MBL fold metallo-hydrolase
Amino acid sequence: MTNVRLTHVGGPTVLIEFGGWRLLTDPAFDAPGHKYPFGRGMSARKTTGPALRVADLPPIDAVLLSHDQHPDNLDTTGRGVLATAGVVVTTRSCARRLRRTVHGLRPWGTTTLEGPGRPPIGITATPCRHGPPLSGRLSGEVTGFSLRWSGQRHGELWISGDTVLYRGVREVARRLDIGTALLHLGGARHTATGPARHSMTAADAVQLCGLLRPRTTVPVHYEGWSHFRQGRIAVAREFSHAPPEVRTSLTWLPRGTGTQITV
């Protein structure tokens, strides 16, 4: 059995600590108030700043970067974190753009993190679709990550990445044993793309958890930006009507404070 310490910095950014490892997801550390272009007429304003500064972080062994093309997942300050991290794991196209030592994975590709005196971590890239069907050219390549290591009792730790609920995400439930799920939610929408959603809604999360059956479900990336349409209240309401095994899995992380999760 392993205890993992999760610290929600804000948005998609989570510090994951266990067994001597320090991993960071999607580093976004800019101050609030700025409006950012997302391409193709889309934009969003950052409304909430990070709970921790980059200076507050411990040395980072690896960054798990779902994608680099949107500033809510990798902003100007966050790019500085990449330069100091030991390893960056991301998509193949992002690896080409970053032009540094990066592990670029295709969907269902794997890599292993190894370090002296620490358990090896197997990383599997999981499918994402950051919008409606045929939106790949608009949104670009995105990935999720599933982490496995010796001593896990309840299954792998999965970070969904920015995605809608579709066949590729449902395949995670068929192929992997997920014990802890960090789900990117918020039901993101942009005026330029009308009613189309670019991330999962609360209802999507409940449906997906019915397939995954995780022991622990952690919502992230549902607040702090103007393009999110469903915050904590909407997520909590949807889960309150879910079957008991889904409802009781819901776990909220306080921003900026580490929380112990058993995996």
